[in-house]
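Q: Structure tokens for this one, please.
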Amino acid sequence: MNIKKMILGKIEKNGSARASEIVKLTGFSRAYINRFFQELRSEGKIVLFGNANRAVYLPADRAAVSRAKDKITQVHRLLRNENLSEDTVLADIKKKTGIFRSIPDNVSKIADYAFSEILNNAIEHSQSGAVEITMKKEASAVNFNVRDRGIGIFRNIMKKRKLHGTMEAIQDLIKGKQTTAPATHSGEGIFFTSKAADTLAINSSGKTLIFDNLIGDIFVKNGKSFTGTRVIFNINTGSTTQLDKIFRQYTDESFEFSKTSVTVSLYKMDSEYISRSQARRVLSGLGGFKTVTLDFKGVDTIGQGFADEVFRIWKKHHPGTALISKNANENVEFMVKRAS
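A: Here is the predicted structure, written as tokens:
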């Protein structure tokens, strides 16, 4: 019995094959059959696509993998919150699914930013041992759900701001960023996400805060009480919202453009640079330039999160863009070198 020929024949006929299917056809053990799949992979004839019991073997060509990705429009994962990084999670979703494929660029950028911000909040602030995520592309929308089992966003705000109740925390969250000069860190990611989404719902402590930009309203509803926070984001694939325009509308950033380069004068924006959210806002839409210069004149220091997002993560995703720092004092230089 030619097992390898059988595998290739099944893939040619059906477009894919699973180890369990060949086990059933031959009666041999999974360990034995897997040897032939591994040999075919080593020979460059097939590739493994997908995770765990959903994994399938495909012909080793880009078109087959692309077609397989397009069919995967939903993902659900329970992530252990230990050395967890939102950019790694997002990159894996983009690599292994078709959720971000064939959607308008402005919608892709918004979903990318919003998911990164909400997942980062759960990772860094929830005090939860695990984070559960779902993401789905439907016929006319992209949505995701991030759930943790930590302290709860409204309780966390109450504690940090020394407030007296959930409604005070919700009020603080709503009004805290309704300004053309947002504060440097707390709530910034949620603020910009709430402006970019069609709808954003934050459920915690028995209350659900809903930002509905389709009708231009914000309201609070009673909900089921549970441990932690659930955030539900939705945007229509026909949305005309531009993330860069939202950033410009609510910040006082100073940009000097040429055909191939841009200089961002940080000192004209905020007094401190702490969060990843700030870094994403500063560099949004600048990946097309050959050179990006960050002017740190008047900036006393930057945080680890800001430096890592700019000088490691953003640089990794934009290898064709030269990232230059100027007027950086020794505090800033230390953090830049550490991140690089």
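A few notes: Residues 203 and 302 are 32 Å apart (CA to CA). Confidence is low (pLDDT under 50) at residues 176-186.
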